[in-house]
Specification:
The structure holds two protein chains of two kinds. By secondary structure, chain A is α/β, with parallel strands linked by helices. Chain A contains eleven helices and twelve strands. By secondary structure, chain B is mainly alpha-helical. The chains are: A alpha/beta, B mainly alpha.
């Protein structure tokens, strides 16, 4: 998905290093109209998209709000209490079920809700995930055309989909970055707060040669390997773009340094709310500056075996002791602990929502202009249930989404949710997913 | 991404290997080779009645490029530049139980390119910080950016080693030009050289194993790996790193396209210390030892679980393998039921062995009547295949079934209540794991698979979640007896002995090594090759170095596809 042609609006043509280069730039106040509500050419601001994923499912009895309706017609459920302050932006979709046959525990269902299709036996997915369908529509002119991908827990889920929730296609995952420091350093380079130095031009020269090598090699390969090298070339392009943006040195402010703000957040890969906060700061910064408009965030991967010590659930696997309720302390303890753990995950999500809400964007805030698709790998985990699947849509999508809604559609295909969001971002395809997972109907109730 | 359908290879592979019912043995080596391959139409090949046309040639997928695994990358960079510290590159993907298989299938993400750039930047910066060190890693150190002959010599030599083949003239010119340009710009010829090397190591020719072969006229057009590709295959298989100069010289002389030429080099390589690195990496992948790094335990139950203990568990297992393969070469399967362990005092305490002063890492032997024997009695295997606070007969059984017997254990079916406690009973009281798992064997939905795993895992119930021996579980007597393929065992020690004697042990080991080395599961038509390699293993008294030698010297290692088969046509188009 390499884009060499960038929209005029974000392109600055200049002579750098003796060559004409096209520079994607972070959004500047000067590029907006007088009210800050649209780009200078009158085009409306582009909404942003995030997939936010957590492993091990929910208990529908605690997750699904009691009443169906909008506004005052529904109230937050116990599991969703940490999201209460974001109720105006929150749409809860209940009753939906995964239609893809459940061939592989913890693998078929996440593949279905992320890609709309069955997983591959011994591999990952058959189709691109929703974020990768949206990225070419709104993100090609940014410094991360394929989006930014971050993760909190790096503990495996028995190989369910490895650690991944973003897929360019089969065998083309975008593994999450677990280090907020690494993302901070990348964003800092792009923020315009560093002085460009000559080494940037040298790096670009080397990447030009690497790209030439790769293209020559590509011509000798079979179709699957050509795709793999093409993806490598996407990476070379992305890095070139980022170096260009660093050279252009446009001031976008400075991202929050995780080591300064959250020194006690725990090691990369550990589940802590402070790590969620660190990534929330960085994602809000990147989305606000339009360094990217697409991101994914894995709280814990499908069937994640990590512990939730901060939630008071000890150093045991949340999956086994609470998700499967096998705690030696008994069923009541396990069930209550599971409910605590789900709410804990939602408090991690709340960190991101808070940063987005508190970041001005256009006439409102970033949460107004973002769509966050939240889901998991299973519904009720101890029965491996696939009905009443956890599905949240959060944010107003630049005014396209209604928000403050509990919509129930018993037995409907989960793929209708990603299909609706894809259409919202202008996806031209008539459907999302394939076979049993295919959806070609949107959910009009979600829309404003 | 333009690839919305799984590729031809994936489709073919699934046809070749068959779908999973609960117990799938070793499909390609069951002897049913005729049904193992497919024709272009997807029909099983190999059968033709009287008067019919001869069968279509059997088709197998063409070889693919393989990204260096993280271990191959680190070892290769270290061989080229000396010891360096690098930030991590994009993680490996596990497929079919091996990172080497994931490396042949999974694409790098765009963010992964930046990680390579940063890692190699750090490595070259360190390597070029000391002028004396620079002289050791390149053939010639230029004094001036205009010293083209010296730069050419340095880059040609370094490039051949890094890319495992000589650079073509245009390739060399490109890197030479960048070295001269940056050298001129900075007034520092060595800085120019360093940048060119930074580029050479970012090139896909370094980061991927490009081993595609070419048709060999003397072999009826069968696709044969070139001599340089053979050097790469030998080095990564036997050493887990790139070839040395001697191996590349042998390739240059064309010596690696014959069995004799390969054997001469393989013998030399197996005697080299790097062979230990190669075997160690295979064992790390085969037994999943990499997972030990992130394994956590409930510290309220197991205060003894320390980072040093975890490290020592891994060293114990690796030292056992090293001894039986290299220091005191013997029957590899003695690992399965042996009494030899390697300990420091911390691990000795866990094994119930005497402590020693000074506390050094040392060999020790468990008593002859020990309930703990072999690989499945090692703390590393027991702790890795357990939950944080409890044992897991399913995980332990799955390890035995999959890693040692090559049986496939699929994940549980949908909508199964995985809670093993009886909800109706107010207080079921303590139960042994065997009692709790009764449901697995009674419920037909569970029994198919759990009858593979649970009886094997329950044999190890005398060992707790960190691998410590226990007489009882919650005060209850442990019954560790069971059956493996109709043969009774009283406990874990006897199961270890059954595993050593098991007729599938050698077949499975050969299949695992072949998969690891090839970066893919065996093709149906490769069954005779696997059988021949297994025979060589048996004939050698199960010496692992002889297994490696048999693998790399078998003609199947030199060709991209088995004799009598052809490569499937590539239906894709250039993007």
């Amino acid at each position: 998905m390499r884009s060499t042609k960038l929209p005029r609006r974000t392109v600055l043509r200049g002579l750098l290093g003796g060559a004409v280069v096209a520079l994607p730039l972070p959004r500047l106040a000067a590029m907006l109209d007088g009210n800050g509500t649209a780009y200078a050419n009158g085009e409306p601001l582009k909404p942003r998209f995030i997939t936010w994923f957590f492993g091990n499912g929910i208990d529908p009895a605690q997750w699904v709000p009691a009443a169906v309706g909008a506004g005052d017609g529904w109230a937050i459920s116990p599991s969703l209490t940490p999201l209460a302050e974001f109720k105006p932006w929150l749409s809860v979709l209940s009753g939906y079920e995964v239609k893809v046959p459940h061939l592989y525990a913890h693998k078929s269902a996440p593949a279905a809700v992320l890609t709309g299709a069955q997983a591959v036996d011994g591999g990952d997915v058959q189709l691109p995930s929703l974020d990768q369908k949206i990225a070419p529509l709104i993100n090609a002119d940014t410094a991360f055309p394929g989006g930014v991908h971050v993760g909190i827990s790096n503990v495996t889920g028995a190989g369910a989909l490895d650690f991944n929730i973003s897929f360019g296609g089969p065998n083309a995952p975008n593994p999450p970055e677990y280090s907020p420091v690494a993302l901070f350093n990348t964003l800092l380079g792009l923020s315009g707060s560093l002085e460009p130095d000559p080494s940037l031009f040298r790096r670009k020269k080397l990447l030009d040669i690497v790209a030439a090598d790769a293209k020559e090699l590509q011509s000798r390969l079979g179709s699957e390997d050509r795709i793999r090298i093409e993806r490598h070339l996407d990476g070379v392009d992305q890095l070139q773009t980022q170096i260009d943006a660093t050279i252009a040195s446009v001031d976008c402010g400075t991202p929050v340094d995780p080591d300064a703000a959250y020194p006690d957040r725990g090691p990369d890969g550990a589940i802590t709310i402070a790590r969620c906060s660190a990534f929330a700061d960085l994602l809000a910064f990147a989305l606000s500056c339009e360094l990217t408009r697409v991101a994914t965030h894995v709280f814990s991967c499908a069937a994640c075996h990590a512990p939730y010590p901060e939630a008071g659930l000890g150093n045991v696997t949340f999956h086994e002791d609470f998700g499967h309720r096998l705690s030696p302390q008994g069923l009541d303890y396990a069930t209550a602990g599971f409910h605590t753990g789900v709410a804990y995950a939602m408090s991690g999500l709340a960190e991101l929502l808070r940063r987005l809400r508190d970041t001005p964007d256009g006439a409102g805030n970033l949460l107004d202009n973002t769509v966050i698709y939240t889901t998991s790998c299973v519904a009720q985990p101890w029965d491996h249930r696939m009905d009443d699947f956890p599905l949240l849509v959060i944010g107003k999508g630049g005014g396209l989404l209604r928000g403050d809604l509990h919509h129930r559609a018993q037995g409907e295909n989960t793929s209708k949710v990603p299909f609706t969001l894809l259409k919202l971002f202008g996806g031209p395809e008539p459907s999302f997913g394939k076979d049993e997972g295919l959806a070609d109907q949107t959910i009009p109730e979600l829309l404003a | 991404m333009p690839h919305n359908e799984p590729g031809t290879r994936a489709v073919l592979l699934s046809l070749v290997l068959g779908a999973a019912s609960c117990y799938v043995g070793a499909p390609a080596t069951d002897g049913d080779t005729s049904g193992g391959a497919v024709t272009a139409t997807g029909d099983p090949g190999g059968s033709s009645g009287p008067g019919e046309l001869p069968p279509e040639p059997k088709q197998v997928p063409a070889p693919t490029i393989r990204r260096l695994t993280a271990a191959e990358f680190v070892h290769s960079v270290t061989d080229l530049l000396g010891p360096v510290t690098m930030p991590a590159v994009e993680a490996d993907s596990l497929q079919d139980g091996f990172f080497t298989v994931g490396a042949a299938r999974v694409a790098l993400s765009p963010a992964g390119v930046a990680k390579y750039e940063a890692a190699i930047a750090a490595a070259t910066e360190q390597a070029f910080a000391d002028p004396q060190h620079v002289a050791q890693i390149v053939a010639c150190v230029p004094a001036l950016p205009s010293d083209t002959a010296c730069l050419r010599d340095a880059l040609a030599t370094f490039g051949r080693r890094a890319w495992r083949r000589p650079l073509t003239a245009p390739e060399l010119d490109r890197y030479l030009a960048v070295a001269a340009e940056i050298g001129g710009e900075t007034g520092d010829a060595v800085a120019g050289l360093r940048h060119a090397i930074w580029g050479i190591l970012q090139s896909p020719h370094f980061l991927y194993r490009v081993e595609l072969g070419e048709p060999s006229p003397e072999d009826g057009g069968r696709v044969r790996f070139t001599a340089y590709e053979m050097a790469s295959r030998l080095a990564f298989t036997l050493w887990n790193t790139l070839p040395d100069e001697a191996l590349l010289d042998a390739a240059e002389k064309g010596e690696l396209v014959t069995t004799a030429g390969v054997e001469a080099q393989a013998q030399r390589m197996l005697a080299d210390p790097r062979a230990r690195q190669g075997v160690e990496n295979f064992v790390r992948e085969l037994y999943g030892l990499w997972a030990l790094d992130n394994k956590f335990k409930d510290e309220t139950v197991f205060p003894d679980w320390t980072p040093t203990l975890r490290l020592m568990m891994r060293e114990d297992l690796l030292a056992r393998v090293d001894e039986v393969v290299f220091t005191a070469p013997g029957d590899f399967f003695s690992l399965y039921d042996g009494l030899r362990v390697f300990v420091d005092n911390e691990l000795a305490r866990l094994y119930g062995l005497p402590e020693q002063d000074p506390d050094v890492f040392r060999a020790a032997d468990l008593p002859e009547d020990s309930p703990r024997r072999g690989l499945i009695g090692s703390a590393a295997i027991l702790a890795m295949n357990s939950l944080p606070a409890r044992t897991s007969a399913t995980e332990r059984g799955q390890f035995i079934a999959e890693a040692l017997l090559c049986r496939t254990v699929p994940p549980p079916p949908p909508e199964v209540d995985v809670n093993l406690d009886d909800d109706a009973m107010v207080d079921p009281g303590p139960k042994t794991l065997r009692e709790k798992l009764e449901r697995h064997r009674e419920d037909p939905a569970c029994a198919g698979c759990h009858n593979i795993t649970d009886p094997l895992g329950l044999a190890l119930e005398h060992f707790d979640s960190i691998g410590r021996y226990r007489e009882t579980d919650q005060g209850l007597v442990i019954d560790a007896s069971g059956e493996l393929d109709g043969v009774f065992f009283a406990d874990g020690a006897e199961l270890a002995q059954r595993l050593r004697e098991h007729p599938e042990a050698a077949t499975c080991l050969v299949r695992k090594l072949h998969t690891y080395a090839a970066g893919r599961q065996p093709f149906g038509p490769e069954a005779p090759a696997l059988a021949a390699i297994e025979q060589a293993l048996t004939d050698s008294g199960n010496h692992f170095d002889k297994l490696l030698l048999a693998l790399v010297t078998h003609e199947s290692f030199r060709f991209a596809h088995p004799d009598g088969s052809v490569l499937a046509p590539d239906e894709g188009e250039m993007p």
